[in-house]
Amino acid sequence: MDRMIALDFGDFILDAKLFDTSIARQFAAHLPYTVRLEQWGQELCGTIGRNLGEENPVDDIPPGGIAYTPKGKHICIFFGQKPAWAVEYIGHILDEQWERLVTHPEQDMVFITLK
């Protein structure tokens, strides 16, 4: 079952759903997270401080995709570029809400909670 989450950047909140995968369920089990973000092109990422392992890493994440990588224990939010390495695709920002990140990519923190 998909679970709904909120990505609160302070100035705006994006709604997203987590997929029904082992990694996504582990991610949800430890919510909420406060994540300090770094921008890499059209990607925001930051550590969640937990190793959730690997299940089915993929090389391509669409804009709005939410991914996890055990490299650095990072959560990554994509809004236009491909990952540098294979990552776990665990969720997606609803509709076209991710486009907010294209016009406001300078985010340095996100608070992630269950909805």
Describe the protein in words.
- The chain has 2 helices and 9 strands, in the order ββαββββββαβ.
- It is mainly β.
- It has a 9-stranded antiparallel beta sheet with strand order 3-9-1-2-8-6-7-5-4.
- It starts with a strand and ends with a strand.
- The mean pLDDT is 96.
Describe this structure in a few short sentences.
The protein is built from 2 helices and 9 strands, in the order ββαββββββαβ. The chain has helices at residues 22-29, 99-103; strands at 3-8, 13-18, 33-36, 38-39, 43-47, 65-69, 74-78, 88-93, 109-114. The model has no long low-confidence stretch (mean pLDDT 96).
Strand order of the largest sheet: 3-9-1-2-8-6-7-5-4
What oligomeric state is this? single chain
Q: Please give the count of helices.
A: 2
Net shape: globular
CATH class: Mainly Beta
Strand content: 35-45%
User: What is the strand tally?
Assistant: 9
Q: What characterizes the major β-sheet?
A: 9 strands, antiparallel
Distance between the termini: 14 Å
Classification by helices and strands: mainly beta
List the uncertain runs: none
Named at the architecture level, the CATH assignment is Beta Barrel
From N to C, what is the helix and strand string? Answer: EEHEEEEEEHE
